[in-house]
Structure prediction request, 284 residues.
Amino acid sequence: MKRLLRSKANFEILEGFLSELLGEDIVILEILESESNKESKTDKFNRVDLKVKNSKGDIVIIEIQYDREFDYLQRMLYGTSRVITEHQQEGEAYSALVKVISVNILYFDLGHGTDYIYHGTTKFVGIHDHDTLQLDSRQQQQYGKTRINDIYPEYYLIRINNFNRIATTSLDEWIYFLKNEEIKDEFKAKGIQKARQTFSLLSMSDEELRAYHDYQDELRDEASYAETNYEFPYMEGVRKGKSEGLTEGIEKGKLEVARRLMRKGMNAEDAAEVAGVNVQLLRE
Prediction:
């Protein structure tokens, strides 16, 4: 999972996972250095598995933890605090403090609870009236935030061991994958089918990976063959006003290319797209 999410080529995967978790479309701008600087010998390292900036300017830190840590809640607090101070420029107003979202994927039991996803935010509730304190209009304009909890760090605790159910939502599909290392054909969560393809490649041995790349090269050769022998003559025939009989023969040839691609393992939809034919013709 760490290799899968860290790759800049896989922003689509990370964006899909975070979009489903946070309930909004997330666009990743860049992957940031995930280890903080030590200003003195006594400083504690703050090393996270992944730190990214999204299009809103928020910093998202992701931690995948397998080993039990009894003080993990304090570790989360330290991590977000360190990120906030590191991204604050000297002399900059407090209103410019960066928003941090801490996503923690845990393969051990933390705390006592029955759910498998917990979301923590900061809010201020009146002791007497029990109302929730809100930002006034000037603060909203100055901070670019609508709620007080949008200013403070947010925490997501994903307790993988507590997920023991069928995936019924798009977010569940991601949790199912995190627990079982399996993505089903019918899963439709954002980015998850891209994760399926990439994860299978990461799991291959060197020999399997070489064979896969050889197979991809062969498919590209087939696609080039189709383009050279059928697409180009077809366009040339149209340009020169060739007969309809030539067009019919070219269409048959394109169908044959699509069938050859399918015999080599390509699915009907992709074969039809490469050869430039209607997929329904392949199924007749």
